[in-house]
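Subject: for your reference before the review

Hello V.,

The reviewers asked for a structural picture of the protein, and I figured it would be easier to keep everything in one thread rather than splitting it across files. Below is the amino acid sequence we used in the manuscript, unchanged from the supplementary table.
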Amino acid sequence: MARSNKSRGKEKSKRSRAGGSERTATSHSRGDSRDQLVHAAESRRAEVITVGWMLSVFATLIGTVTAGVVAGVARLAGDEAPPLVRMLPGLLILIASISGLVGLLLIYPTYRWRRLAPPPSVTWFAVVVCAAPLVIIAGLMLRL
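And here is what came back from the structure prediction:
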């Protein structure tokens, strides 16, 4: 009798474990299109290149905007601005242009290695942001 109670307890625990895993499996295997987009298995290489691309775009944006703000402050201060404040916008634009060039160069591998291409609006935003410091440098060189 004691033996049968133990075996019943084992069977019951096996059923409860199996039931829990079945519930988990069914809750994650819905046919939503959102789930399919989330689980579009990208390779590690594609994820790394996409993250690097977006980081370079973000760094370019921050560098360009910061250079514009510092240039505005230096212009408002006029001759009273310290030399570092007058030099900083040029340095920030140089750094932003290097990051922008990297961002422009990473567009091709991002499209090539990803299974699901980035949205076109994101790509065009990245192109505009990454090209902006290069255009600013070209404009400053032509003005001189």
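For the response letter, the relevant points are probably these. Residues 56 and 102 are 7 Å apart (CA to CA). The helical segments are 2-28, 33-38, 44-77, 83-105, 107-113, 120-143.

Happy to draft the paragraph if you're swamped.

O.
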